[in-house]
């Protein structure tokens, strides 16, 4: 406890760090207040209180409940993330975008601007779909035509405002703004989830306090295991040849390439979840399919759903890793800088070696993602309330772990620069070196 109090005191002594933390907290409070503002023309009492599931549940979780409340920021930062993913994929497949990625700061600014334009386009489309499908006609108290137009404009402005808040946190606050906004939205649901679980545990005869303690212990163990895996890297040694530059000798040192065990991040889960939502959507459009085999895919606790979900995650993990990690480029960059892997010839042999290492570590990484993804359904199966079960795995847990580690790493860097002790007694917080992320074109890890 004394170590913790000393560290907190040291943090408060650094004026720049204190200012950044207070600024971040202020922006996050503003965001949470805006989440409570309902779209103009909507009667909140007429909104459906039915809990969202599938992809809609994921969107509602990322938006901190604003999605189900018909808030002016109901779409949150998801359109921006979608636009960032599209631009990132274009940077892999389209030569023009590849060229911009290699242009340094000027290229990055161009890609950021394209991402913003694409965010507006995606938000307009999603806003129209949102008001058409998620807001019942009974809840609309003004002319429907005017409401649909007004809501599309307001929701687009709301998403751009949230995106601006995230950029301000990244520039003047601590941590990554977009990630922190998503994390706050997820944490905002934690108190309600815990209260529901406590009420459920003590209402029945299933163990009461003992069961609640066991659930907390299990959640703690899962979080620790998640941190262990997402931080895991395979270090490939790289030796740099000695060179004489002027009167100085440079090079001749050994460094390491940290290859992530989970290089694909949370994207395989998001892609797989989107596909698993298709059967439910078909049943909604064609009610006569309710009794067909598709019904098994609308129940997240069914064995068929879990196995299919896990298979899709494993497949998407290999796919996304293949398109985002380029062994050939890594080999070429290494060769240009006079580096080589001991015992491996430069060029094609190095590229093949790196590709083989990535393939070997991607398999256990994909199994880990699959296990994390189906843990919430297993938690529901053993009697844990669905709201609380979301925190036992899935995208929410991975994002929480990643953002917390990233923020702690930045705080520790400020402490070490001012010659204070770090946040840990031994070692250092390594941040998100192995955390699943999507890197936007503006350099933000989502």
Automatic annotation (TrEMBL):
GO terms for biological process: intracellular protein transmembrane transport; protein targeting; protein transport by the Sec complex. The keyword Metal-binding does not apply. SUPFAM superfamilies: Preprotein translocase SecY subunit. Keywords: Cell membrane, Membrane, Protein transport, Translocation, Transmembrane, Transmembrane helix, Transport. Gene3D superfamilies: SecY subunit domain. The keyword Transport applies. It is found in: Cell membrane; Membrane. It comes from the Bacteria. The chain crosses the membrane at residues 21-39, 70-94, 114-131, 146-166, 173-192, 212-233, 264-286, 306-326, 361-382, 388-408. It is a multi-pass membrane protein. Its main location: membrane. One of its GO terms (cellular component) is plasma membrane. Component of the Sec protein translocase complex. Heterotrimer consisting of SecY, SecE and SecG subunits. The heterotrimers can form oligomers, although 1 heterotrimer is thought to be able to translocate proteins. Interacts with the ribosome. Interacts with SecDF, and other proteins may be involved. Interacts with SecA. Belongs to the SecY/SEC61-alpha family. The central subunit of the protein translocation channel SecYEG. Consists of two halves formed by TMs 1-5 and 6-10. These two domains form a lateral gate at the front which open onto the bilayer between TMs 2 and 7, and are clamped together by SecE at the back. The channel is closed by both a pore ring composed of hydrophobic SecY resides and a short helix (helix 2A) on the extracellular side of the membrane which forms a plug. The plug probably moves laterally to allow the channel to open. The ring and the pore may move independently. PANTHER family: SECY/SEC61-ALPHA FAMILY MEMBER. This is Protein translocase subunit SecY. It comes from Pedobacter chitinilyticus. The gene is secY.
């Amino acid at each position: 406890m004394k170590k913790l109090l000393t560290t907190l005191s040291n943090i408060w002594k650094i004026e720049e760090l204190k200012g950044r933390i207070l600024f971040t907290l202020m922006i996050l409070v503003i965001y949470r207040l805006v989440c409570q503002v309902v779209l103009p023309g909507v009667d909140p009492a007429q909104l459906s209180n039915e809990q969202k599931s599938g992809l809609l549940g994921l969107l509602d979780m990322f938006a901190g409940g604003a999605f189900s409340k018909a808030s002016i920021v109901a779409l949150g930062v998801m359109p921006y993330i979608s636009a960032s993913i599209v631009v990132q994929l274009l940077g892999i497949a389209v030569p023009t975008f590849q060229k911009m990625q290699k242009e340094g700061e000027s290229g990055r600014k161009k890609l950021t601007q394209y991402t913003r334009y694409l965010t507006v386009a995606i938000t307009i489309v999603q806003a129209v779909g949102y008001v058409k499908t998620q807001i019942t006609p009974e809840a609309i108290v003004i002319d429907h035509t005017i409401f649909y137009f007004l809501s599309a404009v307001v929701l687009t402005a709301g998403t751009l405002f949230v995106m601006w808040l995230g950029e301000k946190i990244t520039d003047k606050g601590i941590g990554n703004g977009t990630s922190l906004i998503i994390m706050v939205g997820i944490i905002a649901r934690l108190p309600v989830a815990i209260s529901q679980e406590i009420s459920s545990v003590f209402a029945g005869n299933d163990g009461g306090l003992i069961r609640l303690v066991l659930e907390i212990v299990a959640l703690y163990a899962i979080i620790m295991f998640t941190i262990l895996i997402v931080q895991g890297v395979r270090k490939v040694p790289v030796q740099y040849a000695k060179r004489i530059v002027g009167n100085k000798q440079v090079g001749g040192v050994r460094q390491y390439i940290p290859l992530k065990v989970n290089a694909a991040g949370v994207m395989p889960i998001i892609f797989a979840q989107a596909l698993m939502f298709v059967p439910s959507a078909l049943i909604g459009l064609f009610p006569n399919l309710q009794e067909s085999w598709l019904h098994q895919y609308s129940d997240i606790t069914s064995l068929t759903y879990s196995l299919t979900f896990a298979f899709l995650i494993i497949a998407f993990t290999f796919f996304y890793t293949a398109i985002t990690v380029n062994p050939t480029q890594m080999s070429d960059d290494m060769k240009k800088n006079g580096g080589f892997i001991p015992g491996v010839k430069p060029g094609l042999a190095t590229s093949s070696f790196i590709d083989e290492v990535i393939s070997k570590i991607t398999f256990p990484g994909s199994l880990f993602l699959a296990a994390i993804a189906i843990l919430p359904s297993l938690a529901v199966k053993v009697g844990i309330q669905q709201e609380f079960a979301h925190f036992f795995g899935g995208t929410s847990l991975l994002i929480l772990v990643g953002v917390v580690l990233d923020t702690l790493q930045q705080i520790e860097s400020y402490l070490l620069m001012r010659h204070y002790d770090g946040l840990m007694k031994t070692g250092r917080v390594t941040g998100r070196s192995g955390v699943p992320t999507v890197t936007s074109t503006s350099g933000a890890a989502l």
